[in-house]
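Intended use. Records such as the beta-fructofuranosidase entry shown here are meant for training and evaluating sequence-to-structure methods. They are not intended to support clinical decisions.
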Amino acid sequence: MAGGFTEQSQRFRPSSKEEHVVQKAEEHFERTLITIRGELAGSVAALEHPSDDEALNYGEIFLRDNVPVMIYLLLKRRFSIVRQFLTVCLDLQSTSVQTRGVFPTSFVEENEELVADYGQRSIGRITSVDASLWWPILCWIYVKRSGDTEFGRSAEVQRGLQLLLDLVLHPSFEGTPVLFVPDCAFMIDRPMDVWGAPLEVEVLLFAALRSSIELMELCQRHESSVLLEERLRLSRRWMHDLRQYLLKHYWVTSKTMQVLRRRPTEQYGDNQYQNEFNVQPQVIPDWLQDWLDNRGGYLIGNMRTGRPDFRFYSLGNSLACLFGLLTAPQQRALFRLVQHNRQHLMAQMPMRICHPPMEGVEWENKTGSDPKNWPWSYHNGGHWPSLLWYFGGSILLHERIHPHADMLLMTQMKTLVEECYWSQLNQLPRQQWAEYFDGPTGTWVGQQSRTYQTWTIVGFLLLHHFLRVEPNDVLMLHLDAGLS
């Protein structure tokens, strides 16, 4: 496979219209940008949406959807838009008792007034946690890329960080360092039995702490205080404990699963800790043996007492690579796993959001018979082209940071990214840049999928930039990198 396109990928032959497709995508992207308070501040969720239906919110600026938008704008050095976006989100940070410190899921300007959604208008009325955790990450990446350290250490930014840290690092009835959230609290925004400590939220918490520490250290260099020192100490300890916890309880390989299967159960007392969550061997699914192969590894979706969620979630695992939660050898184990399970995860429209999907009675019981999440659709095994740039970026970043590590594997992964890029380039324009795709191979446009979805368009442009325009720009996503 390393020598070129595989037989499986012949249907994805390079298009001679690459420049035209990229140009049209850029034109679509420019149309997504809207103004807030008279300045460009972000993108609507989708270009085509019924503007006469007030119940639909695809014309609002979503913090989650604007993550790739802001990354792309930073690559283009359009710093003023990113700063305006971050500032508006900061101004809208909640100060009410129940949601104090939460950033808005989305916002829009109506009659010269900002209207924010903190979950009170969402389906299920759940506050999205990922929006709040993404804000410090985007802020730190902006400060690094732009060199705007004045913004990073400003009183407004530092106060926003403290409000957020007070929210996520407060004492609770849970003795572990994870952040507990309800179902529907992140990108998986429909019931999918992901309540508890879902992987994506915990990885974002790790990166949010990492970014917050960097931003607080900016302030510390100019003006230190006892309170700031204490917050830094607590944040560093929490980040360390969280990473150790995730690597211990979420990371699985064929070897760790063999150990887990033979651990004793029903343990009690201070000295017995081999099976802390009392996981019975019967809950380990049959498909896991072939899925892991011999050298593959991944972070499972959730760890709850007696009920680990062994489903593979693409975004959480990709972010764990990008943000450095996984070690370099673990990242390569993840790459091998994706390579081994390519037909499931990439198929004809890269890439699947989670695997395997829930079906039958399990789907009925755990999703509440959710018609949008029927098997192989939406968040229940659907294919989301917007996810490819996260995984592709993790491969390209790994290649930059570890240029001499397992060069055969990395050549194979680079080829995989290229093939997936071409498959999207050839398909997405014809399928009107749809939000998601249905079916085991991701061939059909999703039944309720919006067309000209912003993060589908921008995700493609990001991967094009990292592959064709300036490969070294992927280092911008490396949270340890110094100021440019």
